[in-house]
Design brief:
- It is globular, with a radius of gyration of 15 Å.
- It contains one helix and eleven strands, in the order αβββββββββββ.
- By secondary structure, the protein is mainly β.
- The protein is about 10% helix and about 40% strand.
- The protein has a single domain, classed as Sandwich (Jelly Rolls), CATH 2.60.120.10.
Length: about 160
């Protein structure tokens, strides 16, 4: 859990992403968004951009994930609730401890999804997707099956 928080904080610092105070206005066009590799707790291929706040610290944050086609995030949960808005593409989400695509909800661009804290869920894409995450940090991801955590070395 701490690795994701540290990676998000490092990304925010390295990309010189403005961290907005509650009394500060932020104006950002799509061309202003700085993307970097997602933390190692997510499968390779994803990009992340922190728009405001710091996912690695306590407090509100806004981040976007850019996922390639055929991307899968194994069943997991988060310590805090998260609100997702699909910016582009179609994102597939479902609750459960197994990645069972038969029961997934297709959320299209402009769609929204709220997930309570500690709800077991999974997600995947069929085509490229950009998802905005609004949440309270520190953000974490806890895989139901620890073997699914891409930041852990594979057992030999």
């Amino acid at each position: 859990m701490k690795r994701l928080a540290i990676a998000c904080a490092a990304l925010a610092a390295a990309a010189a992403i403005p961290v907005a105070a509650d009394d500060m206005a932020v104006y950002m066009n799509a061309a202003d968004i700085k993307w970097g590799d997602a933390p190692p707790t997510l499968p390779k291929g994803a990009k992340i951009a922190v728009l405001s706040g710091d996912p690695g610290k306590s407090g509100a944050f806004v981040a976007r994930l850019m996922l390639p086609a055929n991307y899968k995030i194994a069943p997991h949960w988060h310590s805090a609730a998260e609100d997702l808005t699909i910016i582009s593409g179609t994102f597939y989400l479902a609750e459960g401890d197994k990645l069972d695509t038969e029961h997934a909800h297709a959320i299209e661009a402009g769609g929204y999804h709220h997930l309570p804290a500690k709800a077991h869920h999974f997600a995947y894409s069929k085509g490229p997707v950009v998802v905005q995450i609004n949440g309270m940090g520190p953000f974490d991801i806890v895989y139901i099956n620890p073997k699914d955590d891409p930041s852990k070395p594979a057992a030999m």
